[in-house]
User: Fold this.
Amino acid sequence: MRCGLLGRKLSHSYSPQIHRLLADYSYELFETEPANLKSFLENTDFTGINVTIPYKKDVIAFCDTLSPCAQNMGAVNTIVRDNKGKLIGYNTDYYGFHTMLQKSGLSVDTKKVLVLGSGGASATATAVLRELGAKTVVVSRTGENNYTNLSKHTDAAVIVNCTPVGMYPDVENSPLDISIFPRLEGVLDLIYNPANTRLLQQAENRNLVGINGLWMLIAQAKRSAELFTGTQIDDSVINTIYTRMQNQMKNLILIGMPGCGKTTVGRILAQKAKKTFVDADAEIVQLAGMSIPDIFSKYGESYFRNLETQVLSKLGKESGLIISTGGGCVARPENYTLLHQNGTIIWLQRDLDKLATEGRPISANVELSHLYAQRQAYYQKFSDLIVDNNKDVQTTIHQIETALEEIE
Ligand code: NAP
Assistant:
């Protein structure tokens, strides 16, 4: 069976990996320019394809039949060739969003839901939400409801982001500030890279429900795989793939006092998890073109901290890294957002009398107990997990692995 994904720019797609975990067919990326769309659909021998940006509407003209859902949505994201060679268009995003909403645990019946953006995903989300009894308001940059008159909708209970705002690499952006919605219960963001967009981080800061689009991506792929193969796949597969991909994509970030073992533990952890290890201090040295003691003595700590934030901003956007950070990075609250957007932050604790001090300008000049007293609350605030690193390194690694399994 030959299946795949049709779209224009596909190099960052997660779909091949998801489909490999779903079923046993070949899954290719069919990057196609608009001028070649017709010829691709008429001349390519495929069993089934997924369709993504920008062709979900354009492919309708080439389908012989549409499923009722695709017809209603006016968009096709799955095409299957039947045994007579006819192309049938389906919309499995509807199912994907439906299950994402279920996964969030939010109830939308009779509640006001703001759907941001007016493209294809917005139409799908709006259809699902309406069917479940929500009062939906589409917020569009140019529509009657737009980002300048959101004060009309401060009674919104749920926000669904169906825009690309906040997506990698422009992770600093958020489509709106949720502080004007006092009755908000949760946020669904269809973006899945980064895992915690700025919008979702706002929800987390208020202890609201928040979910990214990875669940939807996997669920719609599962339904497509069922259509490609003509066999049903157990729903539990969605969760299995979701957990696996989340683990693979997320960064693990080690924080803690200078000399507490972040680099040693990080290197071994990376080797075991087959992830790439990055030492943030080494990146700063490379950026500055001089050693850390030299940066401190020539330009002072504040200059160093600026470089550090610059480096963490770059690393925090990436996926699947093990990042060892400098001991003082927690002193800047903005570094939390940068590190947390795609990662789990682990505080490595080691007794002060066991900390290495060589080559560490702050540790050499300040009493370690004073430094710890200044930073302890920050470490606490940044950390998702706290792990003791007073015994041997293998014990520490084992503790980290166990703790990570528990939070999944
Ligand atoms: P689309 O058809 O291009 O629509 C995106 C909409 O976002 C536009 O219609 C526009 O609405 C709004 N928008 C675009 N740029 C914006 C900006 N700079 N500021 C504010 N609004 C902006 O794309 P789509 O297919 O609906 O996809 C939208 C997002 O959902 C993408 O990030 C996509 O990756 C994601 N998605 C995820 C899944 C999943 O499975 N997780 C599935 C489908 C889509 P206005 O012009 O009305 O403002």
